[in-house]
Design goal:
Elements lengths: L1 H18 L10 H12 L6 E4 L14 E4 L1
Antiparallel strand pairs: 1-2
Length: 70
């Protein structure tokens, strides 16, 4: 349980940092980003990976971002 809380805290902290900048850009390949997102989502059965479409969530998430939600 503490491991999940740590991961959730890291994700929240990362979200705060990213929220202060324009849409984040990653040098990771889509395949690697998807693999990482699926690994994080596998820590909790209610977490799922989705890919954003459009710019309605900008400046927090750019078009085609991968997000992990509950």
């Amino acid at each position: 349980m503490k491991y999940r809380q740590l991961i959730a805290s890291i994700l929240v902290s990362l979200s705060v940092v990213l929220a202060s900048h324009a849409s984040p850009i990653s040098s990771a390949s889509f395949e690697k980003a998807l693999q990482d997102a699926e690994m994080i989502a596998s820590l909790e059965p209610s977490w799922k990976v989705f890919r954003t479409i459009g710019d309605s969530m900008g400046p927090y998430f750019g078009d085609h971002s991968l997000i992990v939600i509950q």
